[in-house]
Amino acid sequence: xxxxxxxxxxxxxxxxxxxxxxxxxxxxxxxxxxxxxxxxxxxxxxxxxxxxxxxxxxxxxxxxxxxxxxxxxxxxxxxxxxxxxxxxxxxxxxxxxxxxxxxxxxxxxxxxxxxxxxxxxxxxxxxxxxxxxxxxxxxxxxxxxxxxxxxxxxxxxxxxxxxxxxxxxxxxxxxxxxxxxxxxxxxxxxxxxxxxxxxxxxxxxxxxxxxxxxxxxxxxxxxxxxxxxxxxxxxxxxxxxxxxxxxxxxxxxxxxxxxxxxxxxxxxxxxxxxxxxxxxxxxxxxxxxxxxxxxxxxxxxxxxx
Length: 305
Description:
Elements: H1 3-22, H2 67-76, H3 78-96, H4 109-113, H5 115-123, H6 125-151, H7 157-175, H8 204-218, H9 222-241, H10 247-278, E1 292-293, E2 299-301
Antiparallel strand pairs: 1-2
């Protein structure tokens, strides 16, 4: 038996197998060729007619998915899968929950959780004032650190983030002015000092603390950052207990701190690239006139001399 004969037999057998697969019970998808790993490998070779008038579907992502791929998503990406589950759950909650009447105060789960502390502070005004004063001291610590990082260490990122954050807070707070809770426990020692009016959405107390803590972590000042995180949690509990903020104000405050720290980092990186591109020797002009940049992009000092 010569090579030509073998080739003819192999070709004939292959042709027969293809025809038999394509005609099994009329199920066109049986013609797919599979590898050992159970993935479709020959979809692009199939004529569009096998999908009727939707031949473009053969190149879509979901048509290439297998059972192994689906279970692999659950195994390798559990957090997004949990989010997908909670999405379905809260869709059900949203469509079945009765809205709070316009004549009633807003419902806040944080207020419900801190009712005992609220009653305690309501019955002891002196304790409320002491805690307010301590909280104001913590706000001062945040501001001192953020300004110190810029003026003393020459790292403006936290300061830029704080400016971005408070500007956006002012715009949003003025755009939608939330009512002050009826059982708000004010204090002349609280910040803003003097028990004056303030924007509720979102919490600048929490956002500034997050910005400072993130900067500390970048500088590997771990103990100080953990201290700030702990004080921020205590601050959150106190603000809920005094009804100084709604829960949503505090939650968005955390997100705002992370967001504006990231945006200020992108802004700073962009400016550094522009300054380095404009001055080959590493010296900068403009906002940081006569300053020098280290090779890693940080400012060595405000003055190059």
